[in-house]
Amino acid sequence: MAANPKTPFELYAIDSLLSEDERAIRDTVARFVDDHIRPEVGDWFETGQLPARELALELGKLGVLGMHLDGYGCAGTSAVAYGLACLELEAGDSGIRSLVSVQGSLAMFAIHAFGSEEQKSQWLPRMATGDAIGCFGLTEPDFGSNPAGMRTTARRDGDDWVLDGTKMWITNGSIADVAVVWARAPKELGGIRGFVVPTDTPGFSAHDVKKKLSLRASVTSELVLTGVRLPADAVLPQVQGLKGPLSCLSEARFGIVFGSLGAARDSLQTAIDYSVSREQFDRPIAGFQLTQRKLAEMAVSLGNGMLLAMHLGRLKDAGVIEPEQVSVGKFNNVKSSLEIARECRSILGGNGITLEYPIIRHMNNLESVFTYEGTHEIHTLVLGEALTGVPAYR
Ligand SMILES: Cc1cc2nc3c(=O)[nH]c(=O)nc-3n(C[C@H](O)[C@H](O)[C@H](O)COP(=O)(O)OP(=O)(O)OC[C@H]3O[C@@H](n4cnc5c(N)ncnc54)[C@H](O)[C@@H]3O)c2cc1C
Fold first, then answer.
1. Ligand 1 within 6 A of 144 CB?
2. Of 19, 101, 230, 381, which has the fewest Cβ atoms less than 10 A away?
3. Against a cut of 0.90, is the pTM above it?
4. What would the pLDDT profile of 99-135 be if each residue is shown by its tens digit?
């Protein structure tokens, strides 16, 4: 055995691509995950119970909630630094990264980008510290990939807005203090509009989705809005139409481009360590060429995904990234990460199916990541349209 085996990222000299600040942020988040997430997350996943409130406060102290936004108590880091934080959080569990993504890139980003000054000052500082939790309600029971068909309505009654409808699969839904809800207003009032809804408003209720076998360390809920009456200034004033929610999704997807690789890296390192210590036929299974082929292919897939993530991160920091480029990242990195987790599971044999090791948890979690923030198939169509100019959604 080589005296000093390299990690997959060392093989690619990934550190040489990062600034000192970026490495420091990455290492701080990695330590947090080692201390606060890894020891507990297997139990959270098994019981389906996440101490989300306590965790949100700790994540707030860590400074990762809305870390890439400017002002209002947010750190204003680079996109790459945010991506690296997502990667380390998802090396712990995709559910923890989901909590942070939904808080920072969906709920806080929507208010930050499209909110009034009052909405921003009321919610963003408390969301940055984790004192207030946010969720983002776009998907409906009958409209997932095609949110343009949404049935949730927003009508005017005097100065007030009144919201009616149902949202489905909403991360952080039942623990949220504030929900950013997208609803269909009459055409003359802008069509699809976003609303900042305090979750204690009469008529708002949230019910958790049960029996999940994926993202069990994450709260997923249905939101029911029945005559939810809001003041005139509850609407997000700076955006109308589907481009509002879609631009938030592009932000969150960027975090997934990096984040999914965290689950893959953790799976691969676990499989490498296991293969070196597990003996069959009187030798470590790492010594079999079939195992080495699996490890080599996975390390290259992971490293290539990281180079892609870094390239997209630098484009984003330069302010020139296009939404279809984020789709390239989600398309490639989530698919690769899911394949890596499945292959790593095989290396652990029977041990691979238990929560004693993180791999099957990552594998099951990545099934959700494959589906949310635009399914893999929808991103395929985004890339098909980018390449041909021909939309193929209908
Ligand atoms: C754990 C979890 C958390 C989530 N969190 C949130 C959240 O916080 N907020 C939120 O708003 N949403 C959230 N979602 C919803 C998620 O974004 C949707 O599940 C996703 O958009 C897919 O919608 P759907 O489940 O209705 O599937 P559908 O849209 O019904 O798709 C079913 C299948 O059909 C395929 N398909 C659909 N249209 C086409 C087409 N034109 N061509 C080819 N194939 C097609 C899809 O790719 C998929 O394979 C979450 C989902 C999950 C699982």
1. yes
2. 19
3. yes
4. 999 999 999 999 999 999 999 999 999 999 999 999 9
